[in-house]
Amino acid sequence: DDCKKSSMDEGTAGSEAMATEEMSNLVNYIQPVKFESFEISKKRNRSFEMSSFVETKGLEQLTKSPVEFVEYNKMQLSRIYPKGTRVDSSNYMPQLFWNAGCQMVALNFQTVDLAMQINMGMYEYNGKSGYRLKPEFMRRPDKHFDPFTEGIVDGIVANTLSVKIISGQFLSDKKVGTYVEVDMFGLPVDTRRKAFKTKTSQGNAVNPVWEEEPIVFKKVVLPSLACLRIAVYEEGGKFIGHRILPVQAIRPGYHYICLRNERNQPLTLPAVFVYIEVKDYVPDTYADVIEALSNPIRYVNLMEQRAKQLAALTLEDEEEVKKEADPGETPSEAPSEARTTPAENGVNHTTSLAPKPPSQALHSQPAPGSVKAPAKTEDLIQSVLTEVEAQTIDELKQQKSFVKLQKKHYKEMKDLVKRHHRKTTDLIKEHTTKYNEIQNDYLRRRAALEKTAKKDSKKKSDPSSPDHGSSTIEQDLAALDAEMTQKLIDLKDKQQQQLLNLRQEQYYSEKYQKREHIKLLIQKLTDVAEECQNNQLKKLKEICEKEKKELKKKMDKKRQEKITEAKSKDKSQMEEEKTEMIRSYIQEVVQYIKRLEEAQSKRQEKLVEKHKEIRQQILDEKLPLEILGFMSNESIS
Description:
The chain is an alpha+beta fold and 637 residues long. It has helices spanning 2-10, 13-24, 38-44, 55-64, 66-75, 95-98, 114-122, 287-294, 296-325, 334-337, 358-361, 368-371, 373-384, 393-397, 400-460, 469-567, 571-619, 622-636, and strands at residues 31-32, 49-54, 77-81, 104-105, 159-169, 178-185, 192-197, 215-220, 227-234, 239-246, 253-260, 266-280, 340-342, 348-350. It has three domains: 1-138, TIM Barrel, CATH 3.20.20.190; 159-280, Sandwich (Immunoglobulin-like), CATH 2.60.40.150; 394-454 and 476-563 and 583-631, Phospholipase C beta, distal C-terminal domain (Phospholipase C Beta, Chain: A, Up-down Bundle), CATH 1.20.1230.10. It is built from 18 helices and 14 strands. The strands form four sheets. A four-stranded parallel sheet has the order 1-2-3-4. It has a four-stranded antiparallel sheet with strand order 8-5-12-11, with no helix packed on it. A hairpin with a 5-residue loop joins strand 11 and strand 12 (266-280). The chain starts with a helix and ends with a helix. Residues 317-374, 451-472, 555-578 are annotated as: Disordered. Its EC number is 3.1.4.11. Residues 139-269 form the C2 domain.
């Protein structure tokens, strides 16, 4: 009874404790630690430690240090969890952190939104075990990966995916319109939200037919982390079903894709009929080569056709050479006398072994067209090759930014001259005022002395008054004149000294200003030169591509002309001539392209060398003197 009572009190706690103990024996524990930095984690190098990041912190680390985050996840585990402000239990997009190699990307499972659907679609594969192995290059220590890359990853073959939505089956039992949306999720460069949307079917949800142009994902950089989502909606936007497929698991061909509901549970009848093409990504520059490799029979037939067309032109050129060499010979006699057979490189040899006179020996020389072939090649290349001249220093000085800086410096120098001119004017006014004050004081005092002298002259008329006053007044006037002269001399010396100091200050200010302006102009001219030269090199690449296209266009036109000429002959002869024509044509094409590329390379080397010379000229001593002279002239004007 006591045993029963204790078991009733415990309930299932006893069995749960035993189960927990058994489960814990199977678990490898991970030690949680606070994340400090990627450098410290790399230095510690402890694979049993794990750090947790709130989604905002994880996104910050992913944005600032994407490569370091990937390297960190190679060494130890990381866990991402939703931020606490998601009161509606919404989810962030887990693809962001899968791209960085995060092992545990936690979501709010109570909300089945798009992020949760992608999570369930991703882990549906690998037997629904809940585990997916990261791509190899995200596990190997000798490989480095940037989740924000836009180019091809070393060792990974990018894919080209084409999806054509053909029709749907049993999408809804209602009489509503339906449409399909196609999304791609993966790296930022691969992600395309709502990349494609079909037209809405009119009131047909049982077997709608769209039959529209396929949506092409030209370059999927990382197929192992990308997934394709095909979703079906009613015309009002109500969700019907969807399917999330990893790009790596998609196979080409026609497929019925059964749809799933929001919780990734299979729907009984709804399905979408699609046609999918999966190829390795090939850049546009190599598309012709890949097409030839994928369909070699068609390529060989095309080449044979071109060779036969070219052979006809070679034979016609030989006949024209014979007619020019024997103008008096009748057309009927010429073939019987000297019959030629085509040989390599267009050189013709006669079939007769008998000795020939000099006039006949001339006929057996190589055809003029074959001798001048290199010259013709060069002429054709020169006709498409554009002359690119480096911008001179005078042209660089005409750039808007440099002219703007020159105007600014001219204005600053002009303002400096105005300030010193204003100071000089003020100083002259000041000295004029002092001169007037001294002059007025002198006149006032002299007038007073003269007045005193008049009074003294009246007293002189009185015989009883003494006669010594006149000599005193004359002495005072002389002293006053001497004092006045000394004051004026002192004022003039002071004025000259102040003007000299002011002129020296102006001279040194202008000299320093010009020196600073020269430095700024040289730096600006150097920056302008680098910018213009970089733009010119970029433009040169575009010019090279245009020249190749123009060369191909001219060669294709030439080929069409030869084909037209070959068609005018009888069928048996035309086939033989076309076979020979295509052989020489292929060699000609390769030589033309090779020589064009060599000419373009030489042109670029010359341009780069010229750019270096111009930059060196900017740094030479002559250029600062020229700029200084220019500015002096501007300041004088």
